[in-house]
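Because discrete structure vocabularies remain unfamiliar, we turn briefly to a single example record, giving the amino acid sequence and backbone structure tokens:
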Amino acid sequence: MTSRYLAESLTRFADDLLQKAGLEADKAQAVAEILVEGDLMGHDTHGLNLLGPYLGELTNNTMGKTGGPEVLNSRPAAQLWDGKRLPGPWLVLEAMDACASMAKTYGSGSVSIRRSHHIAALTAYLKRATDQGLMMLLYCSDANSCSVAPHGGRDPVFTPNPMAFGIPTGGTPILVDVSCSITTNGMSGRLVKEGKRFPAKWLLDDKGEPTDDPKFGTPGTGGTIQLLGGLDVGHKGYGMTLLVEALTGGLAGFGRADPKQGWGATVFVQLLDPEAFGGLAEEARQMDFVADACRRSAPRPGFSAVRLPGERALKVRAEQLAAGVELHPGIMPQLTPWAEKLGVALPAAV
């Protein structure tokens, strides 16, 4: 039987482990909150599943532990930061604060971050923006690795290159988190460990043929993950991933053209204040109309109803806040050795 844990207990547990590994208190708290938020919203490959690897990076001194980013360029509504390989969740939250301040003055605020460490689940940030009545756009790439081939090719060039959007409405916000590839490196690695296969041929093998074998989504196999749209319309995912490359590495002036520095991220964060345009009330009126029209659309066979992106995640989040977070079975066994090594008590199941 899968154990459940109070979200607060998991956050304290992660916070304690990160601080024992040398991370400053404010950064440890930010990382812990974002990782647990990922699990709360059902993104269990990008929640506490990442804590062990993060602790390994701290132990190996390949993740920054102290200090802050360096502002390399600044205009009234745009900034470029050198993240100095500090924890990605903390950097993104700091960038969101900076963007919110700019947006409330100028209508929009953008921060490009070079040399960030990994930023976890993009969806974990969106509600913080929409709760303020702000629209959020978030893009991420990792120039350290490549596992996705361009459309028509079989040599990997890109990472899955996720993008996320938070859109305020008069009720439940619309939260979109999608990769430019069909699946992710994290899911490929998990299925390899579990001896399972993908439900369809979402990857290409070492000969460029479609396959459901997840090993071809891991380094050194000669395979690649297919772009969103697959073999039929992968040119659309190709265009999307080029946009992500332009907004991250292109605007940051740091990316795939530069020497690799280890597991990390190049990030673009943008917040928009509807009050600088037609106003929040009018933005909500328009999006509520669209959302209602989507929900009223007659469901096709196999679907009971049409829902908006983010509705399921927020429902799962509310349920897990009440009943406890149901962790993937492999996560706590992965973290137990770290707890023993760093002298942190495991959280009690509920």
